[in-house]
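My main concern about presentation is that the manuscript never shows what a single data entry looks like. Each protein is reduced to its one-letter sequence and a matching series of backbone shape codes. For the editor and my fellow referees, an illustration may be useful. For illustration, here is how one protein appears when written out as sequence plus structure tokens:
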Amino acid sequence: MTAGGSSIPEVQRLLAVLGAGKRCAEMGTAYGEGAAAIASTAVSLVTVERDSERVVAARERLAGLDNVELIEGDWRDVLPRRSPFEFLFLDSGDWKEEPFRQRALDLVEPGGLLLKDDLTPDFPGPDPLREWFFGHPALIATEILTTARTAAIIATKRR
């Protein structure tokens, strides 16, 4: 688990696969490792970070990547104006709050993908986050191991 720092290499590879050839967005840039992974294969990436110190580090990390737009701000203000996206990396903590889950889902076009990492496999439950992914009528989701001790949920938005 990264505790908000950066994506682990296994997740970075997954991000590159899921973002390939797509218009992408990321909530919570942190230091830019996940964004760099997405940008390595994406057509475009809009990534948003609120923490100004992290933005400085991410700008340095993402310098020279012409397909990346890094914005300092709140995803709720920035991403709706640029949506819909084909792939959304849910990498900030605040989207999990009940009023914002639907707003996050609305950013993804039908047939688009969502990824949430930093999960613990075999969580004893109940887990409102997993319940949302697996119970939402607009989503088809699966959970995968990213390492022996970490997991991620991949979902697609129904057409």
